[in-house]
Amino acid sequence: MAEHTEGTRFEALREGADGKAPVVLLCEHASNRFPPAFGTLGLDAPTRESHIAWDPGALDLARLLSRRWSLPLVAGSVSRLIYDCNRPPESPAAIPEVSEIYEIPGNRGLSPEERARRVAAVYRPFVEAVSAAIEAAQPAALVTVHSFTPVYFGKPRAVEIGILHDSDARLAEALLARDWGGRAVGENAPYGPDDGVTHSLVTHAQSRGLANVMIEVRNDLLASPEGTEEIAALLARNLAAALSSLGIQLEEAA
Q: Longest Cα pair distance anywhere in the chain, in angstroms?
């Protein structure tokens, strides 16, 4: 099926505060939306709803953090299988032909022009939205919120919360030093820089000298509103303390 995306833009979702704020939140894999312009990429409905298409629970978690402190939030508005906004255009993983054990027929054999149209339709609007949010907020830190599947390539994952960083580990180290109440917390787990997952941190935060961290939560912990609220409260407590240790203060919304 031919894609009808010439000149089309899928704007990122922007929520939360419009003015100055100490932190900007990102949620690149917030959506499993497949707009008609792209079709289904040859995937059935269960696959389009699975973890390969998005990060289940991540947007709900990011929204709880955003509302707690009135922080700006920028989130992806289409499935990461159409374009992964946490990957640069030159990365094959930006428009994957295979994700875990799943073939993505609609991404196979795209021409350079077709890839460029995906970049223009999805990635560029996301980058522009992040830049606009940072310009408006003038933050001291950037935090990206993700979730991951409990079982990957058939192997269970013991880690529950991942604290990820690239070369700037200030905020990650401050978070790792907190009390996580017995939760299994890993540094650069279940992914790390070598897996290409720190693109947003490097591009949007490190390039501007902002403290930064990527938070990954196992998605079975976000499967209910109660579970999401429990994780949000734990993250909020530890994130506020970690930021404070770097001289960055969060104030709860009225």
A: 53
- Residue 222 belongs to a domain with what CATH number? 3.40.630.40
Residue 3 domain-assigned (yes or no)? no
Q: Output the six-digit token pair for 16.
A: 């939360």
Residue 20 main-chain phi, psi, to 5 deg: -65, 145
Which portions of the chain are predicted below pLDDT 50?
A: 1
Q: By residue range, what is the domain housing residue 79?
A: 13-245
Q: Is residue 95 part of a domain?
A: yes
Within 8 A by CB and 6+ apart from 98, the residues are 104
pLDDT digits 0-9 by tens, 147-172: 999 998 878 999 999 999 999 999 99
* Res 17: pLDDT: 85
> Is 254 within a domain?
no
How many domains is the chain partitioned into structurally? 1
Which amino acid would we find at residue 45? A
